Structures are given as C-alpha cells and as structure tokens.
C-alpha cells in the first residue's frame, strides 16, 4: 500500500492540471468503477443485505413451526434475550472456549516455534506436518476426534487414559470433559497456525541484536524477555486477533463433536443462534441472538485492535 | 551424562511428542479406513492388521455411494473458485493500482464484511433462498460462498498486485495500449503465481465449508462434509466406512496444502496486516 501511495502522489504532482490530465483521471475513475462493480455488487448482496435483513427479522416473531403466531414485535426478542439464562450461559461458554483455545494456541505455538528455531536438523518435518491440521475441514476433524480418538475404550485418547491409570472416561458425555474435549480439538487443529506464523516471524528477526546481547552476557531468559518478546509482539497480537474471531464463530468443530451438548454444556453463542433458528425453527429470536453475537464480536475486536495500537 | 546431552534428548522427546500428536489422528484415520469394522473396534487398538480396500469399495460403489457427494463438493468448490476469481482479480487490481475517490473506504468495506458471523448471514439467506426456490441448488450455495471467498481472494490478490513494478504499466500506456489491454497482457501474466495461490486457497475454503452447506444442502446438492454424518447415527456407527469417507474428504486439501506449502503462512494471514481475518 505504501509504495502505491508514494508513486501515485508522484504522478499526481508531475501531471499538469490541464484538461488532458483531468480527462485521464476521469477515465481512470470510470475504469476502476467498472472493475470493482461485480465484486462489490456480490459483496453487497451476500453480506450487507443479509445483515440489514437480519436486523429486520430480529424485530419479528417468526416461528416456522407455528406460523400463525408470527408478526412484528419490535424489541421484544431483545428483551427476552436479556433475561434468557441460556443466552448468558452460551455467552460464558463462548468466552471460556475462545479465551482458553486462543491462550493455548499462542503459548504452545510460541514455545514450539522457539524450540524448533534452535533445531539444526528436522525443521522440515515440523513445517510439513504443521500444515496438515490447518488445511483440514473442521467438520472432518470433529468427526475423526469424536469417533477414533475419543470413543470409549478403543478411542486412542481413552485407551491412553486407561493405561495411564485414569480409567475409561465419558469424554463427550460428561459436561466438563466435553468442554475440555472441544477445547482440545480446536487447539489441536489451530496451534500449528500460531506455530507457523510465529516461526516465520522469528526467522525474520535480525541476528545482530542477539549477538550484542550475548556479548553483554544476557541470559537466555533475559534475551527472550527483552528482545524476542517485544519484537514478536506484532505477530503475537495478530495471531490473537485472527484466532479470536474464528473461535467466537466456531461452528463445525463443536457441532460435529457434541452438537452443543450434553445439554448446553458446549453450546457457544454461535451454536445457540443456529439451534434456535434451524433446530427449534424460531427464526426471529435466532436472528436477535445472531445480532447479539455480532455486537459481542465488534466489542471484542475493538478491544483487541486497541491492544494492537497501544505500545 | 552432561547437561547439554540431556537438553538434546529432552528437545528430541518434546519434538517427537508434538509431531506425533499432530500427525497421529490423520494417520490413524487412514489406518482405520483400511481395516474391517471388527479391527477398528478391537481393544487394545490394533497397529498391525491385514489391510483391506473393502471400506473404500463400499463407500464408493456400494449402496448409498458417496460419489455423488464428492461430485457435489467438486462442483461447489470449482464453481466458487471460478466465480470468485472472475470478480476478485479486477477488483484487486483496481484497489491496488488505480486512483479513485473512496478507495480507502472500499478497501475497509471488503475487510469489514469478514467481521459478520456466518450464522448471522445464513438466517436471512435461508429465508430468501427458500422464497425463490434456491435451497438445495448449486447457484444458491455458490452465491453465499462468495461472502467469505471474495473478501479473502481480493485481499490476497491485492498483496500480489502491489509487488509488480509500476514502470511496466506506464511503459504500456505510453505505447498507446488501452487500460484493459494493459491489465490483460502485461499485469495478469505478472501475477500468475499469486493467482495460482489464491485459487488453491479459495478452493480449499470452499471444500471445507460446513455451516452454509448444512443449512442449504438437500438431496440433490450435498457436499461430502455434510454427507459424512450418514455414517454416524444413533443406532450404529459404520466405523471403517466413516474412516474411508474422512480420508477421501481430506485427500484433496492435504495434497493442495502440501503443494502450496511455501505460501501457506501468507494465505492464512492475509488481510491480517490491515486487520480482520477469518476462520
């Protein structure tokens, strides 16, 4: 972007403010409009229009199972929402799920990146294997974990638990363990992402600063605290922002494993909005929940972006 | 044993554990797909067994074959990729290279569209598509896939367009070539690599999508990520077949991922430098 701006400015200053120049600029604008039109019309139709329509339907009672009760209700859905215990629970589950998965990804990803960075051989293995989880569909990952990894007894995780003397556990049937399981699955799939981004960022750090630190006899911990961490900060914050947005709207990774259950133990707000709309067919209230999710997303990203700007 | 030796052994052990943890669920699915149901269910789990193609034969050519679902996935992913690229390449060029009022806002708009939670888009989309009879159609799914593939493709392509030297286009203008001709003959060939990477990622994201597919699919159009569910029901789980379908669903994206290995980090973090980001 920076280079573009500079060069455009140069051209603008060199061009004489003649009629010829104005005609050229106008032609450029028209050409730009023609190139942008298809994509922007598609984006308006597939994102902006649905958003407006969503806000509109959230003001209605729209029950596909009982259409005779449908009608305009104004802010009633939002009033119901504020006193809906399941909404607050799902919001809490969302925050726990997002907070723990993002923290785990960043901490494990950073630790591994530091470890692999020091390796003289075998980096290639990490680079290839780390790609595997992140390119997979969360739906497929969820199905694999639900069956071959977490099934009682012959599921590998349960097999390991039995052999470790913990005994067979109901990984997806117990509310707490189910939450632990969905968090572990999300962390398994996306830690390689944090790892790859942070490794790339580590590899681009200047070598000479470390050289100077070594001459000053700084300890490994001091080098990490005083040099590596501050230099990596932009990359870490970027990973946090990206992963938070994804975790807040995670769907397939939970839906395929527990479908939000047992009960509502793993039902994040995103999943509650889906279940309300498409399982319970209460679309008006589901829309209000989706709007609430959008507001939560905007608030959290606002906080994160402020964090990025702050030094 | 010296401290240094100990350190090396510890590093090796930690590395092995993590590599295994990432690779194992995938390798294990492949192994299970080559077993019989009774071998899948064996306790303790069998690492050594007589491999059989039976599960693959059943899911591909048996009754309830998933071939139509694989075909659905291919049509949806290829369709999404083609439509996305036709719109994203010109838009990205304009955003990266041309001067016009409101350019900053246009770029911000593209990023902001990614903030919308997918569940918020699918509710209105379901209502509209139901009204015009587009549920369970390719055009319905491909249209809504543009909501996430377009912003992604535009931003990824902008980063490639920005890398081309300005002098090339200026020379072409001075030779009297039209803008469209310059774009087609001079610019596009310069970003071939970037276009290829974008195609890989758009295809990959479309292939992996689940929420929109689960709501909008039906008996005619049902991608493999949704069809997988038929192998797990309350009454019984068809273990080996489920493993075979999982492997078939993973195969194309794993191949593409390994091919595009060097560009993965850029593809995953696109737009992040300027904010935003997605699933």
Automatic annotation (TrEMBL), chain B:
Q: Which InterPro entries match?
A: BP-dep_ABC_trans_perm, MetI-like, MetI-like_sf
Domain of life of the organism encoding this protein: Bacteria
Q: Which GO terms describe its biological process?
A: transmembrane transport
Q: Is-annotated flag, keyword Transmembrane?
A: yes
Could you tell me which SUPFAM superfamilies the record lists for this protein?
A: MetI-like (SSF161098)
Q: What is this protein called?
A: Carbohydrate ABC transporter membrane protein 2 (CUT1 family)
- GO-annotated cellular components: plasma membrane
Q: Which organism encodes this protein?
A: Bradyrhizobium stylosanthis
Does the keyword Transmembrane feature in the UniProt annotation? Answer: yes
**ABC transmembrane type-1 domain residues:** 70-260
Bilayer-crossing regions: 70-96, 108-128, 140-161, 182-204, 238-260
Q: Which Pfam families match?
A: BPD_transp_1
């Amino acid at each position: 972007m920076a280079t573009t701006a500079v060069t455009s400015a140069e051209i603008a200053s060199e061009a004489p403010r003649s009629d010829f120049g104005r005609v050229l600029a106008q032609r450029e604008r028209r050409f730009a409009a023609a190139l942008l039109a298809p994509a922007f019309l598609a984006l308006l139709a597939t994102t902006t229009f649905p958003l407006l329509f969503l806000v509109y339907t959230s003001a209605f009672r729209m029950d596909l199972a009982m259409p005779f009760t449908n009608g305009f209700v104004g802010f009633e859905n939002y009033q119901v929402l504020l006193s809906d215990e399941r909404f607050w629970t799902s919001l809490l589950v969302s925050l726990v799920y997002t907070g723990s998965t993002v923290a785990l990804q960043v901490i494990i990803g950073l630790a591994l990146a530091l470890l692999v960075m020091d390796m003289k051989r075998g980096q290639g293995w990490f680079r290839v294997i780390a790609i595997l989880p992140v390119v997979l569909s969360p739906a497929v990952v969820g199905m694999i974990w639900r069956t071959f990894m977490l099934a009682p007894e012959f599921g590998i995780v349960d097999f390991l638990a039995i052999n470790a003397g913990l005994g067979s556990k109901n990984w997806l049937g117990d509310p707490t363990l189910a939450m632990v399981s969905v968090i572990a699955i999300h962390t398994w799939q996306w830690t390689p992402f944090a790892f790859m981004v942070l490794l790339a960022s580590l590899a681009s750090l200047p070598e000479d600063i470390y050289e100077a630190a070594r001459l000053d006899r700084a300890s490994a911990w001091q080098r990490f605290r005083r040099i590596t961490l501050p230099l990596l900060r932009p990359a870490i914050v970027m990973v946090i922002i990206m992963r938070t947005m994804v975790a807040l709207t995670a769907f397939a990774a939970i839906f395929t494993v527990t479908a939000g259950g047992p009960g509502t133990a793993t039902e994040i707000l995103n999943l509650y909005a889906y279940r309300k709309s498409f399982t319970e067919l209460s679309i008006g209230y589901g829309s209000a929940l989706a709007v609430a999710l959008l507001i939560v997303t905007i608030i959290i990203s606002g906080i994160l972006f402020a964090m990025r700007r702050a030094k | 044993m010296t401290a240094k030796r100990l350190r090396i052994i510890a590093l090796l052990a930690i590395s092995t554990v993590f590599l295994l943890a990432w690779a194992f669920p995938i390798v294990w699915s492949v192994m299970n797909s080559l077993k019989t149901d009774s071998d899948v269910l064996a306790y303790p789990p069998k690492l050594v067994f007589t491999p059989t193609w039976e599960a693959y034969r059943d899911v591909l050519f048996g009754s309830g074959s998933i071939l139509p679902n694989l075909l659905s996935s291919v049509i949806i992913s290829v369709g999404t990729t083609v439509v996305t690229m036709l719109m994203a390449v010109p838009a990205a060029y304009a955003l990266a290279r041309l001067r016009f009022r409101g350019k900053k806002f246009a770029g911000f708009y593209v990023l902001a569209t990614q903030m919308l939670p997918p569940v918020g888009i699918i509710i209105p989309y379901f209502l509209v598509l139901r009204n015009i009879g587009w549920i369970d159609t390719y055009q319905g799914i491909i249209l809504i896939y543009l909501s996430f593939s377009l912003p992604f493709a535009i931003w990824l392509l902008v980063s490639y367009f920005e890398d081309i030297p300005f002098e090339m286009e200026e020379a072409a203008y001075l030779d009297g070539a039209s803008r469209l001709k310059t774009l087609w003959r001079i610019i596009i060939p310069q970003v071939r690599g970037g276009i290829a990477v974008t195609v890989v990622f758009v295809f990959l994201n479309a292939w992996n999508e689940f929420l929109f597919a689960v709501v909008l699919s039906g008996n005619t159009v049902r991608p493999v990520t949704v069809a997988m569910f038929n192998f797990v029901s309350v009454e019984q789980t068809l273990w080996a077949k489920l493993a075979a379908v999982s492997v078939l669903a993973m195969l194309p994206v794993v191949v593409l991922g390994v091919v595009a290995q060097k560009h993965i980090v850029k593809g995953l973090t696109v737009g992040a430098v300027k904010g935003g980001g997605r699933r």
